[in-house]
Design a protein that fits this description.
Elements (H helix, E strand, L loop, with lengths): L4 H14 L23 E9 L5 E9 L8 E7 L1 H7 L2 H5 L4 E7 L8 H7 L10 E2 L7 E2 L2 H8 L2 H6 L5 E11 L1 H11 L7 E5 L9 H8 L8 E8 L17 H10 L5 E8 L7 H4 L1 H10 L2
Parallel strand pairs: 3-4, 3-7, 7-8, 8-9, 9-10
Antiparallel strand pairs: 1-2, 2-4, 5-6
């Protein structure tokens, strides 16, 4: 049976976002309309920063106007910050009036910095750190642990400067490789964040890497961590030449089934109907903001 036009079109955003492993693609430039609009609930700013090790990032901040509670604001860290703030709207921020949002991006006018995210969001395959990507030797992979140290250290201090944040209510959102990074961070037992949102996570990356981490996953007794996994039902790997399949990615749902066995995870799973891989980037944000506002 031939795939429907709807299913075909739903798959296109994934091809546009993730085909980089097979072919050159054009990454769209950001418009960042949110920075040009009146936002009654948050103060917004953006700055390029250089870390002590020379790493360059672009920090986007949306800080609530309302006074912080005694413990500080809830905080949502969003990877691919350029793209995340490109799709934020005053209405979305209005639904998260008590959440400070920090976008961790890169100094580029593009939505995605494919070389940097390939390095920063992917775990080391052999525990020895970054190596050239076998498919794209000009790119490095395997820098997730180094990036996590920056994210929870110098980057965090810069992002939260003059912003009172509740240290027990920091959350992390990531899409695709960013979702892979979120799951990697969680499954290595890190206490870096209070909760994780993994959107269309690239669970295929590294073969059985995440499955092996899941086998060893254990949190301290009495600790429960919220985890949100969201994915479309029209997702497809860019190198899969078969007609688009309807239904959530089997590998992701298999990992979800394994994660449900862990009583120290408060797991929420959302299937975004009619969505391809790329489309879930923006489509997940309303539910994630609601989830952060309710979690913890």
């Amino acid at each position: 049976m031939q795939p429907s036009r709807r299913a075909f079109l739903a798959a296109l955003p994934f091809v546009a976002l993730a085909l980089g492993a097979r072919a050159e693609i054009k990454i769209p430039e950001v418009k960042l309309d949110i920075l040009k609009q009146t936002v009654p609930t948050h103060r917004l700013d953006v700055a390029d920063v250089t870390l002590s090790d020379g790493g360059a990032f672009r920090l986007f901040r949306a800080v609530p106007v309302q006074a912080a509670p005694p413990a500080g604001y809830r905080a949502l860290y969003m990877l691919d910050g350029n793209g995340a703030f490109d799709v934020l709207t005053p209405q979305l921020l209005g639904a998260a009036q008590d959440v400070a949002i920090f976008g961790i991006g890169y100094p580029t006018n593009l939505r995605f910095e494919v070389n940097r995210r390939s390095l920063d969001y992917t775990p080391s395959l052999d525990g020895k750190g970054p190596v050239p990507d076998p498919q794209r030797p000009e790119r490095q992979i395997g820098g997730a642990d180094t990036f996590l140290a920056m994210l929870t250290g110098e980057l965090r201090r810069l992002a939260e400067a003059n912003v009172p944040v509740d240290p027990g209510r920091r959350f992390l959102w990531g899409h695709s490789y960013g979702g892979l990074f979120a799951l990697h961070t969680l499954l290595t037992g890190s206490s870096a964040f209070a909760g994780y949102a993994a959107i269309s996570p690239s669970v295929w990356w590294g073969g059985s890497l995440l499955q092996e981490k899941e086998k060893m996953f254990e949190l301290p007794a009495g600790e429960v961590v919220p985890l949100l996994v969201a994915l479309g039902d029209r997702e497809q790997r860019s190198d899969d030449k078969t007609p688009p399949k309807i239904g959530p990615a089997p590998a992701t749902m298999d990992l979800v089934r394994r994660l449900r066995r862990h009583h120290d995870l408060s797991l929420t799973v959302t299937v975004l109907e009619g969505m391809g891989h790329g489309a879930t980037f923006a489509a997940s944000i309303p539910s994630v903001l609601d989830w952060v506002s309710r979690a913890g």
